[in-house]
C-alpha cells in the first residue's frame, strides 16, 4: 500500500484525533483518513452520476446503492 504525506491545520488534526483510539470510531489516524476519503469519493461519484459525468458502468453501480 503506498504511503502519502498530508499537511493539515492543527485544529483539523485535533478534531480527527477525537475520533481515533480506544474510545473512538477508528483504530488510528490512517484508518480514519482512509474512511473519510472513501466516503468523499462515494459522494462525488453520486454527484457525477446525477450530472451524467460518469461512464455508464459506473453510473449503474452508483444507482444500485
Automatic annotation (TrEMBL):
Protein name per UniProt? Ribbon-helix-helix domain-containing protein
Q: Which CDD domains match?
A: RHH_NikR_HicB-like
Phylogenetic placement of the source organism: Archaea, Methanobacteriati, Methanobacteriota, Stenosarchaea group, Halobacteria
InterPro entries, A to Z: Arc_rbn_hlx_hlx (IPR013321), Ribbon_hlx_hlx (IPR010985)
Amino acid at each position: 500500500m503506498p504511503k502519502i504525506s498530508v499537511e493539515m491545520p492543527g485544529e483539523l488534526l485535533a478534531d480527527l484525533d477525537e475520533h481515533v483510539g480506544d474510545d473512538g470510531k477508528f483504530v488510528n489516524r490512517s484508518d480514519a483518513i482512509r474512511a473519510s476519503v472513501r466516503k468523499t469519493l462515494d459522494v462525488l461519484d453520486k454527484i457525477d452520476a446525477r450530472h451524467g459525468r460518469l461512464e455508464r458502468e459506473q453510473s449503474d453501480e452508483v444507482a444500485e446503492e
